[in-house]
Design a protein that fits this description.
Layout: H1 5-8, E1 11-16, H2 20-32, E2 37-42, E3 50-55, H3 57-66, E4 72-75, H4 131-139, E5 168-174, H5 188-200, E6 205-210, E7 229-234, H6 236-245, E8 250-254, E9 258-260, E10 280-288, E11 299-303, E12 308-312, E13 318-324, E14 333-337, E15 345-348, E16 358-361, H7 380-384, E17 400-405, E18 420-423, H8 441-450, E19 466-471, H9 478-490, E20 495-498, E21 500-502, H10 507-518, E22 522-526, E23 544-551, E24 573-574, E25 585-590, E26 594-598, E27 602-606, H11 609-626, H12 639-651, H13 671-675, H14 683-689, H15 725-754
Parallel strand pairs: 10-16, 17-19, 17-20, 18-19, 20-22, 22-23, 23-25
Antiparallel strand pairs: 1-3, 1-4, 2-3, 5-7, 5-8, 6-7, 9-21, 10-13, 11-12, 11-14, 14-15, 23-24, 26-27
Helix pairs in contact: 4-5, 4-6, 8-11, 9-10
Length: 762
């Protein structure tokens, strides 16, 4: 029997939604209407995201009005001539193209080839006038074929997937303006509609929505808009459309990876470029410790003229390393980093023998610290800051400290008192795994901040503070740091230690840092270990950036710590080569040869601005707990409280003359002055009197350079606050570029004057 008129006018329509219940409602309507037919379902089994329905134009128009904002209804485009076509109605129409990895609905052979059926529906509006409409435009409702789709050319196509740029993870949030409740006419409820539109788009995968976690997080923070942030996977072009058409009301930016500020022990001039040919060096290194016992799991590095090789020792304490294009005579350095209980080792131009094992003996920490770890010690940095002179009842009671890091191993005797934490990385599968620390970094910082006062091992600044561990590594991103800060807001954390950095400033993160500050949370951040300008978020005007210093006599001359030394002052202090510097630096703190706890129940001596930031975080907990200002006028949790804390820490600093004030900020904070036990005017002779006769170290550094090269012009130690965060971020980026230019000019000038370069990485 020939088809009826209604059948001839039936066209294929695609109904798309990421919400299964919406498609389920639509499916019920189709099944109940004899003039419509469900031809196919596209997507995972049981969870389709697209329905292929045969119906007339009038029916489609009616359903568009009924399901507006809930599903996308659009006419299917014509399949290319070389696209395989499905069979008759009810057959295999819409099967996946072989080897394409995706489902591609196609027309049936019975469908009339009408001109209007070859074109997609025209968009109802050509330009979005609101962020919600921008979200619809970015979702691809009226746009080109989704990114990554392609057509075949004539002839055989080899199996495989055509390479294309995939979706990337983006952060989408309201641009919140300081002090404005409704910025640019953006209503709070509109963001909910944007999120709904994003979720309903088949081209956008919403990963999660981040916002206040409870009653505390909903408190007013003085910023306009809503604090929620949507994390979504979007193609770059659609993210750009959403950004442009939101007319400045939304922030749309990449969700960047974060990195721990780990010390990078790679000498300058190692280029990393493999030679085209030449000899190959292979040598065996044996690492031995106390009583000639093999040291296992020690990291061993060989630095050649152009490449480096590394490995980890086995049960015998041995590792075999190979360098292409090198000889025993061209190797520039050998570096050994034990996992725990020993000092590091460095030998420049080692006399390697490729024919037999090369033995390295490590110095145990017990040789440097009397009866350690059976007898408790304070680190040299804690003593420089005068923690050893603090009365015993000053222990940080009642203060909550957040440690955002790689976790903390509570198996350690000095860390067993830590009871609170949250694994942000595995929050859906195992949020309680915060007490596992594969990197040892978080455990090392935690020991400095709050190591137990239990007569063994090491002791931290604030052993009675309540520690909250927020595990963000490995694999942390900006979105997860925002989630972490929301956790800290809800738990009413007082001070947060951040030993991390991103690739570039983030406006969404900056809004969250300012939000946390306005709710009384102080962020203390490591400046970075790249040897260049202060990294973000330490460069933010809303945090306290901490740089590192070292001191001669606190490490063996054959340890790698000696390789960080630059020109010291009269008391033996120096700014290590690795530390970042700039006008954003608030204070300096000990960050070379710092002894602390590592898993499972051991100790290690590490370098880095992470260690320096941990010193200042521990002191901040003591100040908040015991300084009279924070029991009175600055007790209320707000931005004034945070600013006052930073002011107290800076004003307690003993200035250091290391050639460049951008490397030391206001100097090294003094515990007694910061808490208010010793007045500032009485600090100088007491603090200076500590640095009497320094022990000889045998550490050597390259000759004395021109003094004029180190008398750099002082740069203000504070940045100008701008009325909005976008301006703050622009200022941060501009300052980084200005510092780069200034540093390049200074080094060139010093070379012309003395013929030598400034200490540090170039």
């Amino acid at each position: 029997m020939p088809p009826s008129n209604s059948a001839r006018q039936t066209k294929r329509y695609l109904i798309k939604s990421q919400e299964p219940e919406r498609l389920s409602d639509f499916r019920s309507i189709v099944n109940a209407d004899p003039t419509m037919e469900l031809l196919d379902e596209v997507g995972p089994t049981g969870e389709p995201h697209t329905l292929v329905v045969g119906m007339g134009d009038e029916q489609a128009a009616t359903l568009k009005q009924r399901f507006a904002g809930q599903v996308i209804i659009e006419q299917e485009r014509s399949a290319p001539l070389n696209q395989p076509r499905g069979g008759p109605k009810g057959g295999k129409a819409g099967q996946a193209e072989e080897g394409s990895g995706r489902h591609t609905p196609v027309k049936t052979t019975e469908q009339p080839r009408e001109k209007d059926s070859e074109m997609p529906d025209k968009p109802e509006q050509t330009q979005s006038s609101s962020p919600a409409m921008s979200a619809q435009a970015a979702s691809g409702r009226s746009g080109p074929t989704p990114q990554g789709s392609s057509t075949r050319t004539a002839g055989a196509t080899p199996p495989g997937k055509v390479l294309s740029s995939g979706k990337r993870q983006f952060l989408i949030g309201t641009r919140r303006i300081d002090g404005m409740m409704q910025p640019m006419g953006f209503q709070p409820g509109a963001f909910d509609f944007i999120e709904q539109a994003l979720r309903s788009s088949p081209d956008i995968e919403v990963v999660e929505s981040i916002g206040p976690k409870g009653l505390v997080g909903t408190l007013a923070d003085g910023l306009g808009g809503v604090p929620n942030v949507v994390v979504a996977r979007i193609a770059d072009d659609k993210a750009e459309i959403l950004k442009q058409q939101s007319r400045g009301q939304l922030i749309v930016e990449r969700d960047q990876p974060l990195h721990l500020t780990l010390f990078d022990a790679q000498p300058a001039m190692v280029t990393g470029t493999a030679p085209a040919g030449g000899p190959a060096l292979s040598t065996v290194i044996t690492i031995l410790g106390k009583d000639n016992a093999p040291v296992k799991e020690a990291e061993v590095y060989l630095f050649g003229s152009s490449l480096q090789a590394s490995g980890v020792t086995d049960e015998r304490g041995q590792v075999t390393l190979s360098l292409l294009g090198e000889t025993a005579q061209s190797v520039r350095g050998l570096y050994v980093k034990p996992k725990s209980d020993y000092w590091t080792f460095y030998q420049a131009q080692p006399a390697l023998d490729p024919k037999e094992p090369n033995i390295v003996f490590l110095r145990p920490l017990s040789e440097s610290f009397t009866d350690f770890p059976r007898q408790q010690v304070l680190g040299w940095g804690q003593k420089v800051m005068r923690l050893d002179q603090l009365p015993g009842n000053y222990r940080g009671q009642g203060i909550k400290v957040g440690i955002v890091d790689s976790g903390v191993a509570t198996s350690h005797f000095d860390l067993q008192g830590i009871r609170f934490g949250f694994d942000i990385i595995n929050k859906k599968s195992d949020p309680a795994s915060w007490n596992q620390d594969a990197f040892s970094h978080g455990s090392h910082c935690a020991g400095i901040i709050a190591g137990a006062d239990n007569a063994i091992g090491i002791r931290g600044f604030a052993p009675d503070a309540e520690i909250h561990v927020c595990k963000l590594f490995p694999g942390g991103q900006i979105s997860q740091l925002i989630d972490t800060l929301e956790y800290c807001i809800e738990k009413q954390i007082d001070v947060v230690n951040l030993s991390l950095c991103g690739n570039e400033p983030s406006e969404v993160l900056e809004q969250e840092i300012l939000r946390a500050k306005r709710l009384g949370i102080a962020c203390i951040v490591a400046a970075g270990n790249s040897g260049g300008p202060v990294e973000y978020p330490a460069s933010s005007p809303n945090v306290l950036a901490v740089t590192a210093i070292g001191r001669l006599g606190e490490f063996p001359p054959d340890s790698y710590h000696a390789q960080t030394v630059t020109i010291p002052d009269g008391a033996g202090f120096f700014s290590p080569r690795f530390t970042c510097f700039g006008p954003e630096v608030g204070v300096a703190a000990p960050g070379v040869a710092i002894l602390s706890s590592v898993p499972p129940n051991n100790y290690a001596v590490w370098d880095g601005t992470s260690m320096a930031a941990a010193h200042v975080t521990g002191l901040a907990a003591l100040v908040l707990a015991h300084h009279p200002d924070f029991q009175g006028p600055f007790r209320i949790r707000n931005a004034d409280r945070v600013d006052r804390l930073f002011q107290v820490l800076k004003s307690s600093g003993q200035p250091l003359n290391l050639g460049d004030p951008r490397r030391t900020g206001f100097g090294v904070p003094d515990v007694l002055v910061a808490i208010g036990l010793v007045p500032r005017q009485g600090m100088m002779p007491v603090f200076g009197g500590m640095f009497g006769n320094l022990p000889a170290t045998g550490v050597k550094w390259a000759g004395v350079r021109s003094a004029r090269c180190h008398n750099l012009q002082s740069i203000p130690l504070s940045t100008v606050r701008m009325p909005n965060l976008a301006a703050d971020l622009a200022l941060i980026r501009l300052a980084s570029w200005d510092r780069h230019l200034a540093r390049t000019h200074t080094m060139a000038k010093c070379r012309s004057e003395s013929g030598e370069a400034l200490p540090g990485r170039e």
